[in-house]
Amino acid sequence: MTPEYIIGIGAEAIKLTLLLSAPLLGVGLAVGLIIAVLQATTQIQEMTLSFVPKIVAVLLALLLSAPWMIEKLTSFMNSVITSLPMAVR
To answer: How far apart are CA 47 and CA 43, in angstroms?
Structure first.
């Protein structure tokens, strides 16, 4: 097992982490921006008003994107496990 192999797996894992977190972070950002504009226009400065919709939106995004996330994680782990015998030699 060479250092290049380990670095390659680590780089792919970081890319996968960024790819999987992007939809959830994007939804949270969009909902947070909408709530901030709504709070600024109505001058309602309630702290829970900004957190509850973001939590609900991120949860819904997680439920909708979970099959895609599981498929990506499964294919990554499958490629890592199948390449291990060649890396050990």
So the answer is: 12
The phi, psi pair for 46, rounded to 5°, reads -85, 130
Number of domains making up the chain? 1
Highest mean pLDDT among 20-29, 38-47, 48-57: 20-29
Euclidean distance between CA atoms 71 and 56, whole angstroms: 23
Total Cβ atoms within 10 A of residue 54 = 17
Would you state the pLDDT for residue 86? Answer: 82
Show the CA angle centred on residue 49, arms to residues 45 and 55, nearest 5°: 145
Structure tokens at 68: 């895609």
